[in-house]
Amino acid sequence: MLPAVKKPGTCIGHSSTGYTGFGLPVKKPVFVPMGDHPCSVLAALGQRQSTPGNDSNLTRTLPAIERLVNIGTSAQMAMVLTGADVAKLSSSSESTSSVTENQDSSSFEVRPFLFEDRFLGVAASLSGGNTFAWLVRQWQEWAAEMGLVPTHNNGDEEQAAQREAEVYARLIGLGLRCQDTELTFVPTLNGERADPNATGTISNLRMSNWSMGDITAALSRGLVDNLFDMIPKELQPLVPAQPMIGTGNALVRNELLQRFLLRHLAQPSQLQIQTAADAAVGAALAPSVLAAVIM
């Protein structure tokens, strides 16, 4: 028999004595789980609200409309939305559940969140840290082809990793000098979920803006802009005014991406960079948050 469908965070039982051999405590409550992405968003919200100077308590208040940008291998933006925000996505009288189902075919989806009156609007791009890593590899390959660096590393992986880190740092430094480049780089080199056949493009090319710094800055700006362009126009007014959490190794280690992210915010103080947003932490937080809301 299939189990009964229950809401995330519902207590469905307790751990028994039969599992003490695995180190599990007895009579600990077991809750219905959430997906890993909503849990990671909840963990990030919890970490933000636990920072000094923030008096709000996630276990006593529902999350405010907030955004989380994660740039790792790929890139995602999650927006905590109310039912009213979701309703803006449809000009007809479709219900919220219908809107949720109709968004799945595009690069922007509306997903359930912890609470009945909260949803996650998610823009997901296939181009993120993987595309910047491709640029780093390209520069290394071009340098090797020109005979400027050795074409092999003698099997020394540590030296190869160090050289790659140096190229990363060098490209980011050069890009920071060219943040206002007119060069435009659309970074959809891997296509997108909504358009698998999409290709990347470079435009506004001049003899004066084809430096390593220009290319790096244009690519970084393109990665950020591409993600924001996926947000439906009905939700665009929410973008500049709300707080934002930034996560993901590619974003944390790349000041250039952070600079272009700030351009989409009204105030620099709205961005908080976090080094971790673990789904396991969010899963642990979920029961206490839901219990506090129900009370």
Automatic annotation (TrEMBL):
GO terms for molecular function: sedoheptulokinase activity. The keyword NAD does not apply. Coiled coil: none annotated. Keywords: Kinase, Transferase. GO terms for cellular component: cytosol. It comes from the Eukaryota. InterPro entries: ATPase_NBD. The keyword Kinase applies. One of its GO terms (biological process) is glycerol metabolic process. Belongs to the FGGY kinase family. This is Sedoheptulokinase. The lineage of its organism: Eukaryota, Sar, Stramenopiles, Oomycota, Peronosporomycetes.
